[in-house]
Every structure is written in structure tokens, then in C-alpha cells.
Amino acid sequence: MTSYVKIPSHLRPSDPQGPDLLTQERESASFDVKELTLLLYGIKDLERYHKILNIIENDPVFDKTNIYFMGRDKLFEYTIKKEKRLVQLIKENKWNVEELQYAEWFLDMPGPFGAHRGMFIPTLIGHGTEEQKKKFLIPAKNYQIIGCYAQTELGHGSNVQGLETTSTYIPETDEFEIHSPFLTSSKWWIGGLGRTATHAIVMAQLKSNGKDYGPHPFIVQIRDLETHLPLPGITIGDIGPKFGFNATDNGFMLFEHVRIPRFNMLSKYCQIEKATGKYISPPNDKINYGIMVLIRSLIVTGVRVTLARAATIAIRYSAIRRQFIDKDEPKKLKDGRIVETSVLDYTMQQYRLFPIIAQSYACFFTSKAMNNLYTKYMEQSSDGNYSLLADIHASSSGLKSLTTTMAVESIEDCRRACGGHGYSSFSGFVKFYQDYLPNTTWEGDNYVLTQQTARYLMKTFRKVTKNPKKYASQIGTNPTITYILQYLNEPNQKCMATTPLNFNNQEFQLKAFRHRIAYLLANAVDQIDNQKKSWNSMLVEINRISHAHCQYLLVQNFITALQYNSQQQINDESLNILHNSTSLKKVMTSLCNLFVLHTMEKDVGEFLESEYLTSSQARLLRTQVYNLLKEIRPNAVSLVDAFLIPDALLSSALGRYDGKVYETMIDWASKEPLNGIILNIDPNNNNTILEKAKL
Amino acid sequence: MTSYVKIPSHLRPSDPQGPDLLTQERESASFDVKELTLLLYGIKDLERYHKILNIIENDPVFDKTNIYFMGRDKLFEYTIKKEKRLVQLIKENKWNVEELQYAEWFLDMPGPFGAHRGMFIPTLIGHGTEEQKKKFLIPAKNYQIIGCYAQTELGHGSNVQGLETTSTYIPETDEFEIHSPFLTSSKWWIGGLGRTATHAIVMAQLKSNGKDYGPHPFIVQIRDLETHLPLPGITIGDIGPKFGFNATDNGFMLFEHVRIPRFNMLSKYCQIEKATGKYISPPNDKINYGIMVLIRSLIVTGVRVTLARAATIAIRYSAIRRQFIDKDEPKKLKDGRIVETSVLDYTMQQYRLFPIIAQSYACFFTSKAMNNLYTKYMEQSSDGNYSLLADIHASSSGLKSLTTTMAVESIEDCRRACGGHGYSSFSGFVKFYQDYLPNTTWEGDNYVLTQQTARYLMKTFRKVTKNPKKYASQIGTNPTITYILQYLNEPNQKCMATTPLNFNNQEFQLKAFRHRIAYLLANAVDQIDNQKKSWNSMLVEINRISHAHCQYLLVQNFITALQYNSQQQINDESLNILHNSTSLKKVMTSLCNLFVLHTMEKDVGEFLESEYLTSSQARLLRTQVYNLLKEIRPNAVSLVDAFLIPDALLSSALGRYDGKVYETMIDWASKEPLNGIILNIDPNNNNTILEKAKL
């Protein structure tokens, strides 16, 4: 890449040097970083990781050095090239799903083919008949057609039942007529639709014989395969620039009485009978929920690596960045010179950053637990047993809401913890944050979702309260029933801690979170059932309930992982590694304590209000949080190293593994294309550019 | 502007229509919107507002319709054009400072000339001798030279004392030698430096006769006035793309033994004597603080309009956007059809948005109070009386930190409250948020600043505790002394509220905030003085203290404004309007209560921990917050209308005054330039673009 500014080559940063500082940090670790990495990935995935990274890093098409300088037009063209190259690699290397996932992670490129792979193909697989798969799935897998998933409309998002696009059965011709009656019926936000897709799965209100059957999916060819122009009656466009995701062509689409064959209604579960137009309804409505649960559990897994990526940049840079001399404890170089204190040594910086490392590990154990539960559910449901569904649907909804909001806030906290340089695109935070943001809205708006969680929890609370004995056997296995019964038995439970260290007691910790969620729940049910408050008037409390429940799940899953002991048979690679290493177990215990106590402290009002904690205990709790920050300090850099986020993904001058922060900042700046022009600044001369300069 | 997609012209949004909904909302107001607008602006400023808006709106150079589609290169060129046009208008219309401020606000264009007007010229005025002004200020005001302010370096921001650039006096030639000894010494983030400025005020470590005198300002010509190329020994470049501010050329700069005449050290207050190199020190160091206080008070004023702008978009769109049918209270059209409920009717949405309206009004009264205090200080200081300085410096630092963090969070809360469409650039939130963000870092990092505030408060606490009687006379005039003395007299004060409505009592409210800050302060002083905790270990508490103090100031200023009565002589246009209108006073009282109680509720842990509130009172408090939301609901749209944020500034499809949300969204989308290309998506064909299409 062209440098437009010649930087004097003899200059280097003032001492101490970044690489030396990171080396020192790495030497102070109390555990084996490679071992922790193995705990996180497992042997097989680690091999996969390196194999794929090697290919991606060495392919010139995927070179990211230019990306921060591109406007939307260039970025989009570049992304199409990357998408095409990725397809070639998938075919050449015969990548499986897991391998492709690694490739997509490293590429970090939400692009126009994303919905094709992530939504169009899975929906065909899940809802298509064998004939439909023959017709659409095979060309889709070969990228002869590109699909998108058109559900959201200009006027409707979360309320799918309210969609306006119609699909009316016309018995005379055995067709459906897809139509957009209003401007607000326009499909909107549809990834890959704007410029790319040839086909769409369109969610439309099914109408037949004058009756409405609600939203159903239809396959519609939307563009000519030769000219790539929209087919007659279909208006399509890209919806314009966004906060992030600008390499994706989110699109809009209007239909004017467009006919498709009856064959194109996705008919694995329900269909319209030929000629009669009779609606044949699905065997049960639990199928869709299974997929939703899976997608949400993947989002939680995504949170873990998102937090890891943000923390990696902020922690490494904070170890290198120095600011002010701490007069109580001045830092010296080996030659005795006093230098400014590393910002990572300031309590405030630790308080801002270390809990984010802990959050990432908390999400690791919870996403494992979610996956295990999902697998169990899938086994049971194939035998027609759906008893787990309500619980895992409620918890996965709430966890999606809680953890994605946490991730967005934590990326931004990490960015701001990098001071001014966090605002530069070269920090690696800007595009990263912008592209991650939609996670709080899609797959269920984070506020709307909490209503689903709380509704289930309240139902359970009423059920258990009515007949506690019936549920006593589920104590210890069902977390919701456990905390409700404990609360009913002992509604005035108090925390017994008398020293900061007492707060490390895992039983104290679990009780605190159980008491708090049950208290909130009991109160809300009382207000609705006895004080006759409307659901709408309770929405703020409802949100609190969902968060408290899901924080409890995160806490419980982290603690449970640590509570195995080596006598037990463990069929889990990660837990085996954890429990065979004293040093790993020790550092994970510190992180678990920090996660639990920091979470508690942030919402201390609820623990005080539920009268589990007293005022003076709240102060002890806070002291213990600060003690844990000190405990974690020597391991901070190694803890983020263990996440193994490659430089190729970080794309960050601040977070790179080798610590060459300042050299990279100025090198990348010299490549800014604006540096290739010379301005005319005279206000009386309307010509703004004197000339394009070249070095 | 070109439309690339033809939208069927017969389509309109489904009922109810946006304009009708806003009309209904406006009809339900309990007060006169024009009267409230007058309260906010005053007669003179309102005239100025309309005069300037009329010019800006009708100048084709300032047309913003294209702006969301521009990459950095085009945006920068366009901004230079706007800057030049603005200079022409300033000269043609002879705008004064206030008029220019309105123009800059409406233009909403942080650009390359910003630092010239905002930093370079004011520093010349404040620190230049008469001869220096003659030489530099006159051409600067004529835009014959363009200046920037080069303080921050690649390795140093907040710690100005640690800057590395040196300026060494050379008696032999009567010059200074400006030099960058390290890569980290490079000036960095300097607005207008990258491509534009011809001159810079460079902050450099002054050295003379082998002694160091700390950072001082020097004027350096950095580019040739003809060729606009950097002068010999100076390396300059733009630092590259950022989260926002991409129309500004923030730059970097390295010096290699660059000589400037002794004359160029800004010498109003201190200088180097010719030949001897003797340092003549400034009369006192309080001058700089005065300017810093002023800049920070302007930032708080900026917060008010920032919050107003964000709330305007979110409230108007929430009145139009409908989602789900509230089963407890379904909404009907005039013709009886049940329609989905406006999201503004959901408690959660009100809880997210109404406090932001209240925050804006809180900032209005506090920025007025800060300005009054600043004026008083300037009067006193011209007589050599600096007694107010420590207090207003501490409070303005903390208020800058608290309110800008609040503004950033509130813009983002408003954006997310707009659901998916908040993510579109057309929401008007994206560029707005991105450009506002640096406010949390510049003019003092928001975390570092709170240390200054807390340090002063602790000092005061110690002073007052030692000798309470000495300070008794200042109860009621000095807020800090007032709450400290009240706490010392009654450290176990309790809240007397027994009903939700009791929380509207302004004396209860003030006591709550006084007790809480004094409690935090007493605790922190105890930990430092008696338990010998280090400053570093207390940084989290220090941040809390500053926030609690500044929240108290916001609360107190709001309540004080409402507590005037018509018997009193009021020399204040706004307060006169407020106290002559029962309806205005009523709605402002609701907003004040909401501001106070919502702030209290968000940090309820601290009020519980200080044992001012009991657990059951915390529940009453929350109930009262919900009651206030209901009270404010009918006035919501009119309250944001009163802010009078023009459509030209909002640049928002969602927030426009006429409510044509969906029509505008699709119209703007049709203009996305990507819609002018046709793709080749075949993975086996490396040509990505089939053709550039035109409608």
C-alpha cells in the first residue's frame, strides 16, 4: 500500500518500549497460557483454527490493510470479491460447517452472501419438501442462485403477526399472488436483497378462500438470472447507509400482484390444497422454536468471542500506555529512571476492564451449558417430548437479551478505556462495534425478548406457589424451581458475610442471586395478581426480572463448572483440563468471583432492596471486588492472550500481539488517501484541491 | 438528487398516518409550546435563530441531502466547500459571535476550520502580545492564514506536563528550536492540521540555559503559503479515519530541529529574555483556569441541545411507530378499527425516553447557573479576587464529565429506542452520535476530570469538619459547605416519605441528594485519612463522589429555578416567563420531579447504602417515577417541539416535524448510489460489476 507521508525512519517511541512491556506482563502469569487456550477451544477445534487461519491469512484477496479507508462503494465491491473468493475456497477445500465458521470469523465480513448461507439455505432445509429442496437447495448450495430471507417490513419488525405483505391463493391458476398493499408493507432491512439476491424467502400473510392463516414462507424468484434486473412487478433497492454493516446490501422490496406457483409455498409442515385452497395445518408449532433457541445460543457463543476481542485490545494497549506518575508508588525503569505509570495499574482502569475478561469466561461456560441443554432437548423432542422447550426458550431469550447488551456496552467500555486513540479506526474498535450493534435488535429486540422470559417465570412462580410439594423433587435440577422454593421456605434470608473475603463463598453467592430474582418475581406477581396492575405498567420490572434470572444462570453455570472435583467422572474436555490444573483452577476461581461480585455490585440496589445485604455488607462487597482486581492484575495480559484472537482479526494498531502500538499508528496514518491531496484553502477561491500529490 | 429506484407513486403508509398522529399529540398539550420555546431561547436569540436559519436553509452549498452517501474523500471536499462558503457569509453579513454560533449549530459540520476559530484565534487573543496579535491575529481573522492548536501527542494526552516536544532557546541566533525527539512526540489528533492549517500553536517543553520550564505555547508556520507544502524539517499528515469527525483533518506533526524566532513564543504572560535566556514567569497561574471553566460551561450548554435533538427524533417517531396490540387497552381508529399501540404508550419506552427530555431541561437551568457564576467570577477576578475559582473549577470539571457521559448514553438510548430504523443513517442518529462521542475525551478525559472534582470536595470536607462554626454562615450559599454541615449535624438522617407522592416534595429531594454525597465523601475521607488507603485504590469511589456532587448541583439548580415566586424581583427573562405561566410551571415541575426521582432511582443503591432510604421506600420511589411518566405522556411531543430543533439540523427521516417517516425513508433509500450498479454475482467470474445502471 502507498505511503503518502515519509516518516523519519530513525525515530522510535520513547522508553519503555511496547514489546518489552508485553514480555514483562507475559512473564508474570501464574498459569500456562497454552493450557487455557486448549480449555477454550479443545484439541480438534484448535487444529481447525490454525488450518483455516493459515489459508485466510495468506490469501491476497482477504488483505484488510485498505479496509479502513474505503467508502461504502469501494467497500461493497471489495466485499463481493471476498465473498466470491470465499465460495471458491469452500469448494476447493470442501470445508465443513465448523471450518466455514472459523473462516467467517477470521474474515469478519458481514457481507451480501451472509443471509444466503445463514438464513436462506437453513430455511429451505428446515421447511422445504424434498421436491422443493431438489429445485432450490441444490442450485443454492452451488451458488447458482443467491437467496435472502425477507421477513421484516418498513412498518413491522418484532410483531411478525402484523406483517402486511399478502400471499393470496388463486385456485383458477393454482398460484399465489404476492402483494404489498401499502408503502409500509415494503420488505426492509433484508440482508443481501438490495443488490445481490436472485431469490427470496418471503414471509407473507397467507390468504385462501377469504380466510387469513397468518404469516407463512414463500420462495420467490426476484431477479432475472441473466440481466440481474428485478422481475416485473417487483421493486427492489438497497436501503442506504447504516451505522455499520455497510458491506451488506440490506434491501427493500415491494410487490405489485406478483404471481408464483403454488409449489413455492414452503410446505414441509403446512400447505394449501390444490384447487380447493384448503389449508392443511402443521402437526405442531414447536418446530420453529427449536431453531430460534439454537440461533440464540449461537449468539451467546458469539458474545464470548466478542468480549474476548474487545478485552484483548484494551488490556494489551493499557499495559503499554502510560499516564501520569502515581506519586504513592512511582514506577522505575531498570536504569532507575522514573517513568509514568502504566494505565493498567490504575484501579479505575482495572475496574473498567477486568470484569469484561470475567464476562467472557462466564459466557463460555454458559454457552456450553446452553448447547448441552439444546442437545438434550433435541434428543427428547425427536421422541415427542417437548417438556424442556418452555424453559430453554425462556432462558435463551433472556440470555440473548442480557449478553448482547452486555457485549455492546463492553466493546464501548473497552474502546473508551483506550482514551483518544480508541476513537481512531486503527484502534480496531470502530468497525467492530458498528457491525456488532444490530445484535441488540435482530433475532428478537432485547427489550421485547425479556417479556417472554418474565412471562414464563411468572407462570412458573404461580404454579410452584400453588403446589410447592409437587415441585420439591426438582430442586437442584431446575434452576427456576430451585430459587422459587428456597424463597418460599425462607423469604427473609440474610447474607452472613462479615468480611470481604466471605463474599468469595460460592454458596453465599448463589443464595444472593437466588434470593434477589425470587424477590423480584414475588413482588411482580403480587402487583399483577393482587394489585391488578396491567402488563404494560409492569414492563420496567419485567425487564429487571429477566436480567436477574439470566445473571443467575451465568453465575450458576460458572460456579458449577468450578465445582466439579477430580474424583468425579467428567465427560468434558474443557472441564478435565480445568480440574487437572491447580494454577488454571485458581485463576478461573478469581475470575468467577470477580464476575459474580462485580455483577452484584453493579446492581447492588436490588440486593439491598431485597434486604439480603445490609449497608455495611455492601461496602465489604465492594472492597472484595477491589481485592480481586489486584489478584487478577499479574495475569491480565496472559488471560487475553489465551483467547487467541489473531492479529488478522483484531485489525488493531493498539491490540497487536507484539505491542508495536505507536509504530503501527503512524505507519497506517501515512497511508490515509487524504494525505495524497494538496488543498487550496483560500475562501475566495472555489477550487478546493490544488493537486493530487504523490510521494 | 438522482433516484435510482422508481417507487410506485400510488402507495402510501397503512393507517394511521404519521402527520395525523403528530397533530393529535400536539392537540393534547397542556401548555403553550411557543411560550416554552421563548423561555428556552429568549426574544433576542429567537430572532437571531430565525434570521440565521433562513440564510443557512436557503444556501445551496449547505444542502445536506447527499451527505449520508459520502465516503471520507468526498465528505472532506464537500466540507472544505462549506467552510469557504461560511467564511464568505461571515464576511458578507458581518456576523457576530452569537450569530456564528447559530450558523455552526445548524450546519452541524465539525470541519477543518473549526480549530482555527475555536482554538487558534482565542489563544492568540488570550496569550499574544499586541505585536503578536498584529502579526498573526489580523491575517487569521481574514483567513489569510489558517491555524490549529497542537498540544496532544501520540504518546501523551491528559498528562500535559509529560509532553515530549521540546522548544530550546538558542541565544546565539535568538531563536527557539522545536524538536520531536521520539516517534511518540509526534503531535496527534490536531484538528485542521492534517491537510489544512498553515500555522500551528505548538505546546512544547520550554528549555533555556539547561533548565526546563514546562509546556508553553509557540506559534509555528508549518506550511508554505503558496504551495501549501510542509516547510523543511516538518512532517505532517492526516491521522486517518475515525469513529466520527471524518470531515475534519485531525493531523500529526513531527519536527526535526526546526527554528522559529524568539518573537513566536506567546508572551503576554511569560517570556524568555533576549540573549540571557532568562525565564520571566507569569504573574499568576489562574488565568488558564478561567478559560477552561468557560469552555466546560459551553460544553454543558451543548449537552442541553444534544439531548434535545436526540429526544426530538425518538419521541416523534415513537408517537408514529406502532407495535403489537396492548390487550389490556387496545387502541382504535375513529372508524372503530383496532390498530397496534403507539410505542410511546408503552411504559418501557416512556421510561427510556422521558427522563432524557427532563435531563435536557435540567441542563438548561444548570448551564444558566454556571454562566451566572462564571460572570460573577470574571467580575471578581478583574479585582484580583479569585475566591470562587476553586469551587467553579471543581464543579465545572465534574459537570463536564457527568453531563457529556449522560449525553452520549442518551443519544444511544434514543437511537435504540427507535428499533431497527435507529441503525439506519437516515435516522439522523448515526453521524450525530459519532461526531458527539469525542466530548467524553477532549477538554479533560471524563474519568481523569472526576479526580479534580473529588480532590477539591475532600479538601473542603476536611476543612469544614475541622472548624464547622467558621463555615456556618455559608449554609445556603455554598452548596458543598451546606451539605457537609447538614451531614455533620445529622449523619443519620432518614427519608420521611410514606407514599409515592411524598417523593415530589422538593425538600425531601434535596435532602436525599445532600445526604448521599456527604455520606460518600465522609466515607472516602475516612478511608484515606484513617485507613491510609492510597489515592489509586480509591479511584472508583472518587468517580462516584464527583458524580453524586454534580447530580446534586443539577437537582438543586432545577429546583431553585422552580422555587422563585412571583412576589420576588426576577432579573431573568426565562424565569419570568416560567413564573408567569401556571401551565408552564406545572409541566416543568413534573419534569423536575422526573429528573430528580429517576436519577435517584438509577443510583438507588447509594441512597439505600447511605441508609437515607429503606427498602420499602425504594419501591414507593419507583412507583412515583412511573406515575410521573403517565403525567408527562400527553405533553411528550409538545415538549420536544418546544426545543425548536429545525428539520435542517435533524437530517432525520424519523424525527421530522411533519411526521412523514416512511415516505422519507423510502425516498432517501432510492437515492443510495449503490442502487445505480448491477452486480455480477457468479463466484466463477471475477468481474463484480455488470454495469452502472441509470434509471
Automatic annotation (TrEMBL), chains A, B:
GO terms for biological process: fatty acid beta-oxidation using acyl-CoA oxidase; lipid homeostasis. Residues 32-146 form the Acyl-coenzyme A oxidase N-terminal domain. FAD binds at T152, G191. It catalyses: a 2,3-saturated acyl-CoA + O2 = a (2E)-enoyl-CoA + H2O2. Residues 148-258 form the Acyl-CoA oxidase/dehydrogenase middle domain. One of its GO terms (cellular component) is peroxisome. It is found in: Peroxisome. Residues 507-675 form the Acyl-CoA oxidase C-terminal domain. Belongs to the acyl-CoA oxidase family. This is Acyl-coenzyme A oxidase. The lineage of its organism: Eukaryota, Fungi, Fungi incertae sedis, Mucoromycota, Glomeromycotina.
